[in-house]
Amino acid sequence: MANFYTDNSELKFHLNHPLMEKIVRLKERNFSFKNEFPFAPLDYEDAIDNYDRVLEIVGEVCGDIVAPNAESIDAEGPQVVDGHVVYARGTQENIKALNQAGLMGMSLPYKYEGLNFPIVPYIMAADIVSRADAGFVNIWGLQDCAETINEFASEEQKEKYLPRVCKGDTMAMDLTEPDAGSDLQAVQLKATWDEKKNTWLLNGVKRFITNGDGEISLVLARSEPGTKDGRGLSMFIYDKQLGGVTVRRIEHKMGIIGSPTCELVFKDAPAELVGSRKLGLIKYVMALMNGARLGIAAQSVGICEAAYREALEYAKERMQFGKAIIRFPAVYEMLSMMKAKLDASRTLLYETARFVDMYKTYQHISEERPLEKEEREEMKHYQRLADIFTPLAKGMSSEYSNQLAYDAVQIHGGSGFMKDYPVERIYRDARITSIYEGTTQLQVVAAIRGVTTGAFLNQIRYYESQSVSPQLEYLKRSLIILTDDYERAVKKVTSADDNEFVDFHARRLVEMAGHIIMSYLLLLDSNRDDSFLRSAKNYITFAKAQVKSHAEYIRVSELSDLGTYKFEL
Amino acid sequence: MKAYKIIVLAKQVPDTRNVGKDAMKADGTVNRAVLPAIFNPEDLNALEQALRIKDQFPGTTVKILTMGPGRAADIIREGLFRGADGGILLTDRAFAGSDTLATSYALGQALKKIGKVDLVIAGRQAIDGDTAQVGPQVAEKLKMLQVTYVEEVKELKNDTIVVKRRLDRGVETVKCKLPLVITVNGTAPECRARNAKLLMTYKRAKTVTELQKENEDYTTLYNDRPELNIPEWTVNDIETDASQLGLTGSPTKVKSIENVVLQAKDSKIISDSDSDIENMMIELITSHTIG
Asked: Which residues of A are catalytic?
């Protein structure tokens, strides 16, 4: 009888952000779909009511089915039978329940049988599913590969594959290979055009493929023989119904055990080219990865939520020295900081999701009609923001999900180390978030542009220009001081005019920007709803300490010091 | 493949599973204000059985028949959200105060008006009255065959159904001809969740009374989309004998209400011989359960 949406008022708060009205109006093309599709909303209120009520279904299925299944799925795991994946029993139940509830293809257009939801409510569903089972959200969340088909595939391909996703076919993105992990330019899987069969054929091996035996897979392969880098790679759709791919093994993992991580063998597997040849890595994978990174940010926030709730409940019940342990400063300090980091990660997640919604919707509209000048500028503005906020959100929230899982185990003491409590599983599940879809170090590589170009600073100054109530002014003033510290640190690092020096301090700089941005977002949230004030105050105090610490590190650091960190090989 | 016509009998009940201390009023009646009105849980099990038949036999229609006050239209909407094809709300002051006999009479008369159906599926019992009488009484009144305590439909082929019954002492597999009344046990599979697209489509489904009460902004919507109109039947829409309706038609009279802790764990088997029934009546009167 649990409902993971209605028991969490913060979700509804983010769903009702002021920018949503514009997003929804664009997404619904000014509510022009209502005559064609009986489930399309009639106006803004109607659309928000749809999202709200559908999320209530997500919350119900997650509370009643997905969360209770998490433990048995973690123990049982998936298996390979005759070259194909058989999910754990609980995973099968979860998939069936979510399919019956029509929760696949949530963000796809109506004409392909989707719900045409903006990214914000879709990401909110992922946040909820992840809280219930962070391993399962991978299988369900891979539906956002369909976004890439919707964006780049031909009309014929869209009509063929997208309705299948909406009906419940699961997906996979087959990128990684034994020798191509973070460096996807090294992908070897061969794609050859077979004149006789009139199709592309794929041959080779993929590794670490999440849900690798899904019904529809996007595959990165080398279509240009003799090439060695990213420019020889193209994107393909492989349909499991046609056969040609077998699962050689499922990896034995530390966490997210229910999500099958597959090694795949392609033997003359027929496949369709997506978009243009040679743009596979350069264009399509980049889009795919950005979607996936936002998904991992949502997964991380869901894990934070689960970890915080488990820890809070335990700390209230666990009696030591004659009182509940939550009464001890050492414990309540940890819990409040967990909550502050959770709220900070979530507000950054939805801010980023809104940026993505704005530019992607304009992008789709631009295929239907030429955009007005202001619209085009707005699209570019939000795209630039989405490009730097996505790695920032993924990087910060995945690190926090690890920290919260660690703290949740710590609050449970010895019991947390045992399999008797969910925190043990949550701790293992969290670990992957800061690794896959690009490690935190690679998120920093993507986000540092936001630091060096001044884009983060501009956005921080924009937040600064928003008015807040007089009693919140003192918090804003302290953030203005932090912003000056940040600006000085950026100047110090960039003025050395040495890329290695920038790389050396990149994580510190990106984190400084992240702390200030998350602080501002919590401050603005508090301005709309004072229930966020606690987290805003606590996070800002924490942010001050973090930013000052990084600023001091950078202040005393010189280019000539780098040598003391390097290793002789 | 045959398509079936199925009616699900469903009731809106106060959620007695979360009873607090103010659940009853001083006068011994249920304080409906503090108990949320919900879809009777075993009626949801019944709906799931109907929807599974619909999944298996395309063309099958599942409609919900519910009797209650205006707000019971929620039951039909909840059914539509889960995949039902429609529903009828039987509502009239004349039905107020009905016990199981008067309820089954009214439902039976409504079913006569609906016409020939293959299956009537109801929950075993409602959590407010816990009588388990309405389903069987409807079957008797319509002179239909009945199978109670069903947990699973094992097979359905043309006009023959095989079902599994869950009884105290084990399970029983029964083969039976249609048309048939089935009552479904709470041990049967849970009902599926509401479907997003169906919810978005049918959330505005309303009865005429609801439409009149509300200040609807979308007046033309109900002409354009007839599926959004929930039929509402009053006593004038079905053939009835007034003496069998509502309070007048209900021999059950509540004398007093008290808190009891149920102690018997096993059910007793009583045959339909006159002597067994007489002994039961004497026992119930002596223990003041009735009379």
From this structure: 437
